[in-house]
Structure formats: C-alpha cells, structure tokens
Amino acid sequence: MKSFLIDRYAKGGALRLGESPVPELKDNDVMVGIHAAGVNPLDSKIRDGEFKLILPYRLPLILGNDVAGVVVRVGANVRQFKPGDKVYARPGQARIGTFAEYIAVHAADVAMKPKNLTMEEAASIPLVALTAWQALVERAKLKKGQKVLIHAGSGGVGVIAIQLAKHLGAHVATTTSTANIALVKSLGADVVVDYKKDDFEKVLQGYDVVLNSLGKDTLEKSLGVLKPGGKLISISGPPDPDFARQNGSGWLLQQVMRLLSSGIRRKSKSRGIDYSFLFMTANGGQLSKITSLIEAGEIRPVMDRVFPFERTDEALAYVETGRAKGKVVVAVK
C-alpha cells in the first residue's frame, strides 16, 4: 500500500512516499480502508523526535494520528463492527499510521462516523475532540457556570474545546489573533482576548480552568488567571511525574519528567493551583459520545484546507506554520 513514512527522526525533515505492507489484522482489530486523515502538530513533533523517549517507535514509521474510512475486514473477536461500516478513530499511540491506504485499529478505539459529516470532516475530529473531552470532562470536570480559558481558540483543539465547554454550560474565554475573532465568537466564546493587542493575564482573572496548548511563557502567565483551587491543564508540556507513571516510563525517565516540570509544579502549588500534563489517549467510547454531540449540532468541525494524499508533506508543512484555522486534512480516496 502507498504510505508516507519517516526513516529517521529529523527536525523539519520531509516525509517519504513509499510502499508498505498492509498492517496485520489482530483478533480484536478492524481493518480500515482510509478515505481521509487529519494532520496534527503531533505528527511533526513525532517526526522531529520530540517524543522518542516517551514513544519509542520502530523506524521506518508511517505518520498520521486521525482516520476516517470504511471497515474492510474485522478480527475474529470483533462483534460491534462489520465490513462496510463508516468509522473514524484516533488509533492507539503505539499503532499510528493513517497517512496510508489502510490501517488496523483496535476495535475499542473506533467509533461510527457521524452521519452528518463527510469523510474529510470526520477525519478532522478524533484527536482534537478526544483531547478536549479528556481535558475538560475527565480532568477538569468542568461544570455549568464555571469559567474556563482556552488558549489558541482558532487552533485544532481550540475550536472543538470552545464548543464543548459551551455545551457543558461554562463561561468561555479564549486567546486568538485579530483575524480569527469572528470565528471564535461564532463557536461560542464569551470573551476574546486579541493576543496582538492585549495581555490575557491582565484582562482575565478568577478562572476555574485553563487549557494551555502554547509555550512556557503562556503556561506560567496562566497561573495569574486562575483562582486558588483552579486547574491548569497543559497539552504542550512539560510532562509531569503522574504522566510518566501512567505511560509506564522507567525510573530514570520519571525523574527527568519530575525535573522538567518542577518549576511549574512549584509555582502552581504556591498559588493553590493544580497543574497537570495531558497526553490524550485513544478511546472509542468517548468518541461515540462526541459523535452524538456532532449529530445533535452541539459541535461542528472547523476545516481550513483539504490536501490530496500525494501532497501530505505539504499539508504537514502548512500545519507547522501555525496559521491554520481549525484542522487540515488529507484526502486519501
């Protein structure tokens, strides 16, 4: 099958279009004929080698963390899916590879595609929606009337997180550039801080939750927005010891992560704030709940561009500019 691979970790390196064997179908898997694949900053971070200690992939590696397509075969133990089903998924982190014609995914990580979305729209959803769900519903336990700041509101995670937070009944603030103010307001943001004109930490205060997807400076400034007892959840790091333990990292790596996060954990503790790092995980059950919200009109995809499969490398480069509004997708079929 055709696929886009990396042969080695290299910052800014090009993906190689090549031939790969169709993946093995295990007893609990579904084989998906890929119609579309979402493109994420995570793909470039994996290519650059940023996660090679946490996620020790075997090279060459097919990249891609979002998929929408049609089930072509099922494993011996699979009962909930059948050939012909239209599905979508974020494959388990050890089994990525959606920049290809086929992928085998554990059935527990798969959900039926929302009926009101195209394949390209569906492929834009899993990773970012699961990230938003696991941050706001699972980790923050966001409740009606609480105040949440979602950074980078026009980004892939931001556009879904704003809509999910509004569905949960929260008061939502977000940061974005001047050009994207109308977009984030249309998604439900109550307060919009134009980061080119204002410092969010001077404008906002008394918040219950901050979802951070930006750098260290933004992370630390976010402490000033939160009230005591608030939660600072970061999907861009630094990883904390809890994540290291959950990820099965060895003692040495746990100590490295403890050191990397010691500064922000110390500052958070002194203010009575809970800091945690979130690396989302595949979950078909949660994705099915997100499907229901999409079909009910509570959440809609926000698409920037769709690239043809042969231009996957170009699609990844475009995502790396940081200028995409919502998600970028490659159409495989």
CATH class wording of the largest domain: Alpha Beta
Question: How does the major sheet shape up?
Answer: 7 strands, mixed
| Distance separating the two termini | 13 Å
Number of strands: 16
Helical content band: 25-40%
Question: Percent of residues in beta strands?
Answer: 25-35%
Shape annotation = globular
Spans with pLDDT under 50 lasting ≥5 residues? none
Number of domains: 2
CATH superfamily of the largest domain: Medium-chain alcohol dehydrogenases, catalytic domain
Q: How many helices in DSSP terms? A: 12
Mean pLDDT level: 95
- CATH fold assignment of the largest domain: Quinone Oxidoreductase, Chain A, domain 1
- Secondary-structure element order, N to C: EEEHEEEEEHHEHEHEHEHEHHHEHEHE
InterPro entries: ADH-like_N, ER, GroES-like_sf, NAD(P)-bd_dom_sf, Quin_OxRdtase/zeta-crystal_CS, YIM1/Zinc_Alcohol_DH_Fams
Protein name: NADPH:quinone reductase-like Zn-dependent oxidoreductase
Family: Belongs to the zinc-containing alcohol dehydrogenase family. Quinone oxidoreductase subfamily.
GO molecular function, one term: zinc ion binding
Describe this structure in words.
The mean pLDDT is 95. The strands form three sheets. Strands 3, 5, 6, 7, 8, 15 and 16 form a seven-stranded mixed beta sheet that branches. Strands 11-10-9-12-13-14 form a six-stranded parallel beta sheet, with helices on both faces. It has a three-stranded antiparallel beta sheet with strand order 2-1-4, with no helix packed on it. With 333 residues, it is α/β, with parallel strands linked by helices. It is built from twelve helices and 16 strands. It folds into two domains: 2-125 and 301-331, Medium-chain alcohol dehydrogenases, catalytic domain (Quinone Oxidoreductase, Chain A, domain 1, Alpha-Beta Complex), CATH 3.90.180.10; 127-277, Rossmann fold (3-Layer(aba) Sandwich). The protein has helices at residues 41-48, 119-123, 126-139, 156-167, 181-187, 200-203, 216-221, 241-246, 251-260, 262-270, 284-295, 312-320, and strands spanning 2-6, 16-19, 29-39, 61-62, 67-74, 86-89, 102-106, 110-112, 147-150, 171-176, 191-194, 207-212, 226-234, 274-277, 303-308, 327-331.
